[in-house]
Each structure stands twice: as structure tokens, then as C-alpha cells.
Amino acid sequence: MIEFRFSSLTEFLQMGGHGIYVWSCAAIALVILTVLLVYPIITARSQLVRIQRQQAMQQERHQHARSSGP
Amino acid sequence: MAWQWFHRLGSPRWFYEKTSRWLVWFAPLTILLMLLGIGWGLGFAPIDSKQGDSYRIIFIHMPAAALALAGYYIMAIAGAVGLIWKMKLPFMVMKSAAPIGAALTILTLATGSLWGHPTWGTFWEWDARNIFMLVLLFLYAGIVVLAEVYPSRDAADKACAILALVGTINVPIIYKSVDWWYSLHQPASIKLTGGSSIHWSMLYPLLLCILAYYCFYTLALILYTRREILVREARTTWVVQLAQARLARGKGRPAEDAL
Predict the structure, then answer these.
(1) Interface of B with A in 74-103 (CB under 8 A)
(2) Distance CA B24, CA A30 (A)
(3) Average pLDDT, stretch B154-168?
(4) Residue B246 is nearest to which of A24, A36, A48, comparing CB atoms?
(5) For B18, how many CA atoms within 13 A lie in the half-sphere containing its CB?
(6) pLDDT by residue (tens digit) across B8-22?
(7) How many of the other CB atoms lie within 10 Å of CB of A47?
(8) Mean pLDDT of B21-25
């Protein structure tokens, strides 16, 4: 049967003395898996911003060349 | 045309636009499956008669190991497709798979180590499976480094693909290691043919965790590949337009399309 196997939260955290191992694993998994999702999103965003900036600089240079031309 | 889908698969733009629509529902679904699977395993699966509660690490450890191995095949196959058909996208997928695989291998080694201490009495044992998992980590790390050090992108892609293909030999060795060298690692509990040696009350949450990890891997691979597309296609018109469209939509608001 599917039921909660622990009678209290403390018991759940202690896991019969193995809590430190199980919860360390859960914490490591949480950190690694979160980084695997967040890192590509953040770097993709900064890449889009970089492209915008380069584009804006190019346009400025174009306008500058046109206005200072003969 | 029968081959049209294959060529579309090679188009970074097609991939980017398709996945933009998928991510909206796929990302929440993956996170939900992950929470359900791990939650079921840690709180609701019965206690193991021999290992006590420490066995619950299996719900985090075993699927991570499975995906670290399956991910290597995905990386090697992507590299092979890139080499054979000279397509752009498969190389981007290959390069994206390397850091994900490395991270999952680290997760496998770390959780395995934490499981080993209460169960085997040691954090690390030089048994065959551990050694070859370490080799797998070095292969992944090698490809991550190799992809960065070459001045030419084409040369880097080819070198990575070849290293990935050569390293493939390691994966079946890891799968079979528990049968070839009898050691501390337990033999497989789940078999496709014949009965599994695991009760359904533990098997179902484990299968759910495996499914969740597969979804997670797919999600991470999509996100990394999209990032790689933006880097490699930065000069193409559609990427520039994408960047400008994002700017026009407002700077302050976090853009969903960047997901």
C-alpha cells in the first residue's frame, strides 16, 4: 500500500539514523539538477543581450559613417 | 518528402522555434514528475529489510547513473550523425550533452559514495563499476575541455565526436561490470526480460524516478542546445531578430521566450 512510512517529521528527517546520508544525497541532487537548468537559461539570456548590444553598436557606427561622410 | 524531417532536424532555427513551444509545458511537467518520483521514493516506499532507510538513495542514485550512461550514447550518436551528414545541429547537441553527462556522473559518484558508507562501510571502493564510472567522468570532462580549446570550431567538433565515439566502448563495460566482476555493487534489480527482483511498491516509484530523470535530461539537453544555437548562430538574421524582439518586448520583465 502507498502510505507515508514515517510517524513524524523528525522520524522522516532522521530515517532511522540514515537521514544524514539520504538528505545529503537529496541536497546534492537538488543543487546539481537546479544548476543544470538555470545555467543554460542565464547564459542564453546574456547571449541575447550581447547580440542586442552588438547590433546597436553596428547601427550607431553606420549612422556615424553616414553623417560624417562627404 | 520522406527525408524532409531529417533535414529539418538539422536546422537550428527549426529546433529553437519548436522547443520554444514545447518548453512551456514540458518544463513544469518535468519538475512535477521529479518531485513526485523522489517524494514517493523517500517518503512512501516501504523500508528495506536489510539496508533500512539508506536504500532510499537508490531513487536518486540509480536513475542518475542510468542517464549518465544513456547520455553518453546520445552524445556519441549525435557526434556520429554530425560527422557523417555534416550537419550543424547534431554537433551542438553533442557539445551540450557533455556538461550534462559530467554533472550526472558527479551526482552518481557522490550519491553512490554516500550510500556506500552506511551499506558497504566505505565511501569509496575500487570496484570495477566505480572505476569505469570515473573513466566516464574523465571522458565527459575531456569532451567539455576539448570543445573549448580548439581555435577552429569545425576541428573541435570533429575531435569531440571522435573522442565520444571511441569512449562508447566504456558504456557497455559499466553496464556489465556487476556481472563480470562480482563485487560490492549489487546486480541489476530491474530486468526487461524475466522477473525483476524488486517488489512493485519499490519498483513503481523507481520507474517514476527513471522517467522523471529522462524528462529532466531531455529538458536540460534542450536548454543547453538552445544556448549553443544562440552562440553559434549569433550572426544569422533570425537570431538577431529574436534578440531585438526580446528587447522590444521590454527590458524589465523577465522574458519567457528566453527560457
Answers:
(1) 96, 99-100, 103
(2) 21
(3) 95
(4) A48
(5) 11
(6) 667 899 999 999 999
(7) 20
(8) 96
Is the minimum CB–CB distance between A26 and chain B shorter than 8 Å? yes
Q: Which residues pair with B52 in a beta bridge?
A: B48
Tell me how far apart the alpha carbons of residues A61 and A46 are, in angstroms, rounded to a whole number. 23
Residues 6+ apart with CB under 8 A from B132: B170, B173, B174, B177
Q: Which of B123, B44, B134 is nearest to A21 (CA)?
A: B123
Task: Give dist(CA A26, CA B35) in Å, integer.
Answer: 11
CB distance B107–A32 less than 8 Å? yes
Q: What is the pLDDT of residues B73-92, one digit of tens each?
A: 999 999 999 999 988 999 99
Q: How far apart are CA A60 and CA B16, in angstroms?
A: 29
What residues of chain A score a pLDDT lower than 70? 1, 68-70
Q: What is the mean pLDDT of chain B?
A: 89
pLDDT at A32: 98
Contact B111, A28 (CB under 8 A): yes
Q: What share of chain B is helix, strand, coil (3-state, %, to 5)?
A: 80, 0, 20
Residue-wise DSSP of B119-144: HHS-S----HHHHHHHHHHHHHHHHH
Report phi then psi at B255, rounded to 5. Answer: -85, 125
